[in-house]
Design brief:
132 residues; mainly beta; 6-stranded mixed sheet; 5-stranded antiparallel sheet; elongated
Length: 132
């Protein structure tokens, strides 16, 4: 199989003057360590997911979750890729993004980051619709 980076780049989001695309999770981890990333940019495409990925079904749609990032399977031509997406309403995350803001509305505490709202349930945070 040949190198399909240019084909996948067309399907990826433009980030910081370049497309984000990784052949596998190990490549992402190496890049992350070199440039100090703490999260995966939305629109990043992965050719494969790591073994510790959890499959999650929310409202009859299948998502993949690993290291605080949700992915959705996508196709470009006949090639399968996994795209980093905004977590869907109903999804849970183990920890909040670093840049969150704490909000209280009618006595209920919410956390907001990047236009996504969370509500703590036990030790996890559930993505909820905008509470306003």
């Amino acid at each position: 199989m040949g190198d399909n980076r240019s084909e996948f780049a067309e399907a990826a989001s433009w980030r910081g003057g370049r497309y984000e695309y990784y052949d596998d999770w190990n490549e992402w981890q190496r890049t992350r360590a070199i440039i100090g990333l703490s999260y995966m940019a939305l629109g990043t495409l992965m050719r494969t997911m790591p073994p510790q990925t959890t499959t999650v079904v929310i409202q009859e749609r299948t998502y993949y979750y690993t290291e605080d990032t949700y992915f959705q399977k996508t196709y470009h031509g006949s090639e399968v890729a996994y795209e980093a997406i905004t977590p869907p309403v109903g999804a849970t995350v183990d920890r909040l993004p670093q840049d969150y803001t704490r909000l209280t509305l009618n006595g209920t505490v919410y956390y907001a980051a990047g236009g996504i709202y969370y509500h703590q349930i036990g030790s996890v945070y559930e993505v909820v619709p905008e509470p306003f």
